[in-house]
Amino acid sequence: xxxxxxxxxxxxxxxxxxxxxxxxxxxxxxxxxxxxxxxxxxxxxxxxxxxxxxxxxxxxxxxxxxxxxxxxxxxxxxxxxxxxxxxxxxxxxxxxxxxxxxxxxxxxxxxxxxxxxxxxxxxxxxxxxxxxxxxxxxxxxxxxxxxxxxxxxxxxxxxxxxxxxxxxxxxxxxxxxxxxxxxxxxxxxxxxxxxxxxxxxxxxxxxxxxxxxxxxxxxxxxxxxxxxxxxxxxxxxxxxxxxxxxxxxxxxxxxxxxxxxxxxxxxxxxxxxxxxxxxxxxxxxxxxxxxxxxxxxxxxxxxxxxxxxxxxxxxxxxxxxxxxxxxxxxxxxxxxxxxxxxxxxxxxxxxxxxxxxxxxxxxxxxxxxxxxxxxxxxxxxxxxxxxxxxxxxxxxxxxxxxxxxxxxxxxxxxxxxxxxxxxxxxxxxxxxxxxxxxxxxxxxxxxxxxxxxxxxxxxxxxxxxxxxxxxxx
Length: 473
Prior knowledge:
Layout lengths: L6 H15 L10 E3 L25 H12 L3 E7 L2 H17 L2 E7 L1 H13 L7 E5 L3 H6 L7 H5 L15 H6 L2 E2 L2 E2 L2 E6 L1 E6 H6 L8 H11 L7 E4 L6 H11 L19 H14 L11 H9 L3 E7 L3 H4 L11 E5 L12 E6 L7 H12 L1 H9 L7 H4 L2 H6 L3 H16 L11 H16 L5 H16 L1
Parallel strand pairs: 2-3, 2-4, 9-10
Antiparallel strand pairs: 1-3, 4-12, 5-6, 7-12, 8-10, 8-11
Helix pairs in contact: 1-19, 3-15, 10-11, 10-19, 19-20
């Protein structure tokens, strides 16, 4: 994506999109955090893994000892977004510094500024950072511009990547769907999300209903519960005019075989019959939502469900902890979860997330890799999640102690398997295009008009088709 002229609008919209998709953000400060009285030092700045003498990497302590001998005293600088995962890693930093002798300088900012900061560091040939926090949706741009170091050789080096790191334990959807470009691994996933349904178990039991497995059942249940009791509606979803409406549509669109564009040819497919069917279903479904649903972002949608106003909710897995929090949710003890229902085109689910990556201009690449290994290892995964981090590892989703704390984990893992269905088809849940922000805004604009009855679904699809063709061409 070019950051000049008319491209500024596209960049702004993509930034807003990322903020709406990766919803587990915290209200962090735009401040740099790091060890006190640190002076910037360099060292261990090899571009590729080296062939130094073998060290004992069978334990974390043995590996850390080797790192300390080689890189002790080195300072690495990080460019990260305000995020619960960032806060979790910061809690783990002091121990990493003690074990490895590597000192860590955190620079944490709102995610709306992060991408600009990273690209300016690259285009300005500054090389101020050793580790980037990178959104999965930026990978195609970063990869095409050669912003990041491919990590395949690092992962293949047993001295640099010990067995206890266990790369294969990372959920396949994340490994394959948010961290690669042109077949190369450009990041290690550390936080992610898909989407699924939460439903009121008390209501379903009361009326003898089963949670939906198909889109037809989903719509039928939304209609059944809508108005069944005073103040009760069938479903809550994001649907606010613009990007949120487009994002809500995308939650079910691929299950109908629809899409905004053909991701191989970039031909616009907004008025393709399958996309029109998906939009019609979305509009029909939301007729059973609270009357103000046309103003809902993910925040209003989850608030409606947690307040007990709706029987079902479909949105991000990253919001699950709020639903299960007795201090926030009236339904925390009477909620169940199921994956996004199967549609006429089969199973599919959303996919978004963050990676740790090494910029090409990093001065301390091996020390940076040591930080990435430590923080993202299977060995430290449970500590990371206990600190508030978002899981990305199969072993965490299957951990019985953690499941007892968050019973949604097994369903999240199942939903991520559905997300991987799209990955295996070569489909990115968010189409990779430099004018993506504009495209989603127009889809969501006309989709909202169809929702409020200003135009028909077919008219909305046709108008969006025309504008998307103008944007792409």
